[in-house]
Amino acid sequence: MSMLRVSFISRRHLLSSPSCFRRRMSTDPKEAATRLRDSGLLRSQGFVGGKWVDACDGKTFEVRNPATGDVITNVARMGKKETSDAISSAYSTFNSWSRLTANERSKCLRKWYDLMIAHKEELALLITLEQGKPLKEALGEVTYGASFIEFFSEEAKRVYGDIIPPTLSDRRLLVLKQATHFSCITL
User: Fold this and answer.
1) Pairing verdict, β 60-64 and 71-76
2) Which residues, at least 6 apart from 56, have a Cβ–Cβ distance to it below 8 Å?
3) Helix, strand, coil percent content, the chain, rounded in steps of 5
4) Residue 15 maps to a domain
5) Which tens digit of pLDDT belongs to each residue from 40-66?
6) CATH code, 73
7) pLDDT (tens digit, 9 = 90+) per residue, 129-145?
8) How far apart are alpha carbons 187 and 42 in whole angstroms?
């Protein structure tokens, strides 16, 4: 009888203690911002040319938590020059990216996906802090967004050309798929 009671108490204790089953995330704005900064996911600079840089004129603007009005961080106020530098950098990087094999590009995209999934809780917390979105909804948004990167990482392996039926019997139409331009991703 006493063994049954111990078993019941232990089970009740485990069921009332959710921290045994899942990681708990604090949404206290100051604590969360500090944790995100320490993890390297909250940056106040812009990423241009493979480096984190401040605005040329040193100007910043505040990012506030819409729920509390607290300042989460100050970020660089990038202008025309920084935008031009980012576009030039992306354009010059495009040549090296387009020389990678389809498999190498696929691996790069897959690594990006894996990093997003590994840090999905922190990314969701960041969305919650700066947009006021419920944490669970923000987590779904991160997972949904990452699924597109996963999809294109798989599709990158399958960049096949096509042979199109010609309208003239002495011609053959071949399609060679290759990168033609760069895209800009903003967050």
Assistant:
1) antiparallel
2) 79, 81, 82
3) 55, 10, 35
4) no
5) 888 899 999 889 999 999 999 999 989
6) 3.40.605.10
7) 999 899 999 999 999 99
8) 12
